[in-house]
Amino acid sequence: MPPRIKTEAEKQPLRTRIIDAARDLFVSQGIEAVSMREIARRIGYSATSIYLHFADKESLLRAICETDFLMLASAQKHILEIADPVEQLAALGQGYVRFALSHPNHYRLMFMTPHEPFTPETIKLQQNHPEQDAYFQLKSIVQMAFDAKKFKPEFNDPELIAQTIWAGMHGVCALEITMAKDCWVNWRDIEARIHTMQHLLMNGLLKCY
Amino acid sequence: MPPRIKTEAEKQPLRTRIIDAARDLFVSQGIEAVSMREIARRIGYSATSIYLHFADKESLLRAICETDFLMLASAQKHILEIADPVEQLAALGQGYVRFALSHPNHYRLMFMTPHEPFTPETIKLQQNHPEQDAYFQLKSIVQMAFDAKKFKPEFNDPELIAQTIWAGMHGVCALEITMAKDCWVNWRDIEARIHTMQHLLMNGLLKCY
DNA sequence: CAAAAAAAGTTAACACTGTTAACTTAACGT
DNA sequence: ACGTTAAGTTAACAGTGTTAACTTTTTTTG
After folding, report:
1. CA to C1' distance (Å), from B38 to C4
2. What is the mean pLDDT of residues A79-105?
3. Cβ neighbours of residue B30 under 8 Å, at least 6 residues apart?
């Protein structure tokens, strides 16, 4: 009997099929819905076979995380082409917020859930790579603006500037993701909140904006 | 045989003993360590007896959350006595950050974990009560500063101002709580990050600070 | 005071979870 | 064709939240 022709999905190595199935699950139903058995059910394997490719659930989630970090950095890399560093900064902020709000589950996993720290050995992603490390992108752009003397003189530490910009945008996104449905707070339109924060950061940090 | 003299703890109604045991657990070992069976073990009851006081684990966690919200608001209520609204704002920010960083597990449960929305029926906490609602405290102080024409003219919506201040401080705290151990980022000192954010918010929003 | 009713707790069980050990099947090089 | 290795499987363990049925304790009532 000839071997049944494999579908495209079945040709993929199992490791990536596991990641994809797990991602599908948690993107559509949230992290709580991701169970080893459900992942296995989706790809037609037994749950234990996942352990042939990942040490444990943590590792699997970190692998997903890794591809998501790459996704974010990739989506932003075109910004590095923009000439004006101030425009770059604005675009990066916009892109970051878009990513967070259109992929809330990814965002939660990436930036709102504590994991074991990513050590350089266990991770394939290259730190300080302009197309793989979104934080490096931010740092670089801030550094360029800093070198061009765009910031007010009281801000003399580019890395601190970068981390403050990140914190500001993260605050808006994180509150939106966890608390948007909460009617305790009479939330203003998310676009207004984003705009106000960006305005505040830019105006506060830059000499003229 | 006479009934054994009850200890002080045993005299407490069971409901609060459950909450306290659960809080103890998750403060010291994180939310993952909180299981119905472990809570019960600690207070010497069977796990199912918890269900006589709480519909499910969610409800129990919400009850903890509620007492924590009260804790935060209580810790801040003295600020309402301060005369100058700008000083009030600064003190409120400081207090908020202190709370977040000294009670990270509480903070995560309160502001970084999605729950079912708190409806006015299911909650004992009074919304818009100056000693029970920390968000109301923020709103009030912002409103006072707004009425005193302390903000720059381009910021004309006090609630939006309040939400932006919150987002800024939350961003710093939330990143610290989830990512402090992550050596991917060369984190600046948390005090510097807090100070920079506060400086930025105050300088950006207020006419003169 | 005793009987009935209500409240408070308990055990056993169900359907899940992540994970391990032991076993089976398939593939491949000699 | 045989032995070896890899790939997957089933069964099982210890844990989870939760429910139903049963027992004990307390309170109310005749």
Report:
1. 37
2. 96
3. B105
